[in-house]
Specification:
The chain is α/β, with parallel strands linked by helices. Helices cover about 35% and strands about 15% of the residues. It is built from 13 helices and 14 strands. The strands form four sheets. An eight-stranded parallel sheet has the order 1-2-3-4-5-6-9-10. β3, α3 and β4 form a beta-alpha-beta unit. α3 packs parallel to α4.
Length: about 375
């Protein structure tokens, strides 16, 4: 083992991360009453430009007056490239001394970004004689940030966690997506032909490299790696699959998106038992409630799979005469892609993120089986 040993960040439960837009004060008490490990008060994407100042005042008042019931409280500031960021930091830290645990830095691109914020926070803590040292969470959501992820992870003693911001990362790298944080039907591999000349098509994990790269940087510097959101909140099976793969790759927690607070009743979920070979959480749920609203979505996914299977079964023996790799019918592949794209466009998490951006890993408010494998409880 190397003589160089990373100093671990302060230990905090970070299985679930609940975002509360500071422009929506009615959500503060619900967030405090929930069971999420970390709450972050959001001044960035969830707040419209004209509402930034009011949201900042709401944040200060909530920090000073509310009982957060022992939860870790973080603040997502605006980007360093905006004129709102410095006021986010100065106003909140000076007017709510020792009320904040963490600052979340969006679109971290270089180590200098972290250094600049560290300098400002240190000066404020000294001037206000703060007793609590604020930690940093960095969102890796640009190509520049991923390129410099090692330097970012080691840029400050305040650093505690790295988060994968999949939506903005996809935009930065110009990756094709049909659902935030989900797979893509065109990202897959074909098997060799079987005896009958048939070839199977398997979808791949388009985010595997990015998450693995972030996990390595985080662990090498003693930080917590946290996976980003899964946009199709109605797809409980898909959410659980993505959450499980993030846990397998080494993430300690995951964001999840639900459209509106209180849209459905909470479902109690017990944490995963040690030694569970299947890595499954054990939910307590009402059978009819768990199935409600899921039948049509499962039927659509099954129809997509059947169309691809039928296209493959009808492929010409040479695997290419139909004009697509392996003989998969282009019309069927396009139909599957369009179906997935329509579902993504209907998702409120995409069409109206500013109003529907409450995030956590355990209060998914869909099927209780969507709880990640690391055992989050319901918010």
């Amino acid at each position: 083992m190397s003589f160089t040993v990373a100093e671990p960040a302060p230990q905090r439960l970070n299985r679930s991360e609940l975002a509360v837009p500071c422009s929506r004060v009615e959500l503060f008490e619900k967030a405090a009453m929930g069971a999420a490990d970390v709450i972050f008060l959001d001044l960035e994407d969830a707040v419209a430009p004209d509402d930034k100042e009011r949201a900042r005042r709401n944040c200060v008042e909530a920090l000073n007056t509310m009982d957060w019931r022992g939860k870790t409280v973080s603040l997502r500031i605006n980007g360093l490239d905006t004129h709102w960021m410095y006021r986010d930091v100065i106003d909140v830290l000076e007017q709510a001394v020792d009320k904040l645990d963490l600052i979340m830095i969006p679109k971290a691109g270089t180590a200098a970004d972290i250094y600049a914020l560290d300098m400002l926070v240190t000066q404020i803590e000294t001037a206000t004689r703060a007793k609590k040292r604020i930690g940093f969470e960095m969102i890796i959501e640009t190509a520049l940030g991923m390129q410099n992820v090692d330097a970012i992870a080691g840029a400050s003693k305040r650093n505690e966690s790295l988060h994968f911001g999949v939506a903005d990362y996809a935009a930065s790298t110009k990756a094709k997506t049909v659902n935030i944080g989900g797979p893509h039907p065109q990202y897959g591999v074909l098997t060799d032909k079987d005896a009958a000349g048939k070839r199977d098509y398997f979808w791949g994990d388009v985010w595997h490299y990015a998450i693995s790269r972030m996990v390595v940087a985080a662990r090498a510097h003693g930080l917590r790696p946290i996976d980003g959101p899964f946009g199709d909140f109605s797809d409980a099976e898909g959410f659980r699959a993505q959450a499980n793969r993030a846990a397998v790759l080494g993430c300690e927690g995951k964001w999840a998106i639900h459209p509106l607070a209180g849209r459905t009743r909470q479902r109690g979920v017990r944490p995963q038992r040690r030694g569970d070979s299947q890595g499954q959480a054990r939910p307590r749920r009402d059978a009819q409630g768990a199935e409600r609203g899921q039948g049509r979505r499962r039927a659509r996914r099954q129809a997509d799979r059947q169309r691809l299977d039928q296209a493959g079964a009808g492929a010409p023996p040479d695997g290419g005469a139909s004009g697509s790799p392996g003989g998969v019918d282009p019309a069927s592949a396009r139909a599957v892609f369009r179906s997935a794209r329509r579902r993504a466009r209907r998702s409120p998490s995409i069409s109206n993120r500013a109003e529907r951006s409450l995030i956590c890993a355990c209060d998914f408010r869909g099927d209780a089986a969507s709880v990640p494998a690391w055992g989050c409880v319901a918010c």
